[in-house]
Recover the amino acids of this structure.
């Protein structure tokens, strides 16, 4: 049976890529904020009710981590209340909600990788609203897959990769946080993995549901710090740019020669971040047979796409 899939947040890093990776799975309706605004949960619920999709992939979110500290109500509406209302609609029709969450639901004090069963304790407003979203969705009884991911980047959109490349054209030395650890994950790989999860759920769909439900960690393998990520960006970019034919935005030479690791305390931001954002992907592997490539491989592939 053909599927009708609704993507929210079509202009975002993951939403953009989902439009390509979900296309083979059925009829895809991709909505921008102007078409489906999660700041108005009732309007969002009405949209879903009228469209009656089999699956909603909710890639829209209030993702401005620092701004959320001064807009906690709006962040909660977008990240928790609207997803809850969409989940309620899907619970009524037997639809499936695929939703994204974050390592920021944890406080980062665990010495090793976080499992899905570990206790949550967000340090900032954004993390609290994302955790609220997870819990409210689960409470509706809707079939749901919540994919917690980390340190998302792409060659378009607002992200660390593009910030590093911009700064690297302006200065010789980049000062980047060295005491926060995580796994930089390319939006395209997240979207491709999501398509595989959706496909598996669709195969298991029957009168009782979609075969799977719950929270899954989905991040690149390996780990680094922001400083380590920046160093690798510069190194890969240099080696790729040397043979790049195109000298567009990603092809022009960089000025930066080195990355200096600094402590989080030296780079004060409104929202506190966890020191450890590393998530274990064991559940994703044992349930869906999915293992994402190491972050260095993902970065190289993303840059190869940009520098060509
Ligand atoms: N970025 C990360 O490092 C990261 C890490 C862990 C988890 N995640 C999660 O992954 C998911 C996708 O993140 P992303 O990095 O792709 O985000 P992103 O690039 O910041 O895109 C967010 C998307 O949400 C849309 N949006 C914002 N407010 C909205 C509203 N009120 N109504 C409808 N749409 C709205 C944005 O639209 P506009 O273009 O109009 O603003 C944009 O399309 C989110 O659930 C996020 O919490 C992200």
């Amino acid at each position: 049976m053909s599927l009708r899939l609704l993507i929210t947040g079509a202009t975002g890093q993951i939403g953009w890529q989902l439009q390509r990776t979900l296309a083979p799975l059925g009829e895809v309706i991709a909505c921008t904020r102007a078409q489906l605004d999660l700041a108005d949960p009732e309007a969002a619920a009405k949209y879903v009710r009228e469209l009656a999709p089999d699956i909603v992939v909710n890639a829209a979110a209030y993702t401005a981590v620092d701004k959320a500290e001064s807009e906690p109500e709006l962040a909660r509406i977008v990240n928790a209340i609207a997803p809850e209302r969409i989940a309620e609609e899907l619970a009524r029709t037997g639809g499936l909600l695929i939703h994204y969450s974050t390592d920021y639901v944890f406080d980062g004090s665990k010495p090793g990788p976080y499992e899905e069963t570990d206790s949550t304790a967000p340090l900032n407003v954004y993390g609290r609203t994302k955790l609220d979203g997870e819990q409210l969705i689960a409470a509706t009884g809707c079939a749901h897959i919540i994919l917690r991911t980390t340190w998302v980047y792409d060659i378009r959109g607002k992200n660390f990769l593009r910030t590093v490349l911009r700064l690297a054209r302006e200065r010789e030395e980049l000062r980047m946080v060295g005491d926060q650890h995580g796994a930089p994950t390319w939006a395209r790989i997240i979207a491709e993995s999501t398509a595989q999860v959706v496909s598996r759920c669709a195969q298991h769909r029957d009168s009782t549901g979609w075969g799977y439900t719950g929270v899954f960690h989905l991040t690149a393998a390996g780990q680094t710090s922001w400083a380590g990520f920046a160093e690798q960006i510069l190194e890969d970019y240099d080696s790729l740019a040397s043979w790049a034919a195109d000298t567009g935005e990603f092809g022009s030479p960089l000025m930066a020669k080195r990355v200096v690791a600094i402590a989080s305390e030296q780079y004060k931001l409104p929202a506190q971040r966890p020191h450890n954002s590393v998530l274990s992907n064991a559940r994703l592997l044992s349930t869906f047979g999915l293992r994402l490539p190491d972050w260095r491989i993902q970065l190289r592939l993303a840059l190869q796409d940009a520098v060509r």
Observations:
- The chain is about 40% helix and 15% strand.
- Residues 9, 11-15, 33, 36-39, 59-63, 78, 100, 102, 130, 149-152, 157, 187 surround NAP (CB under 6 Å).
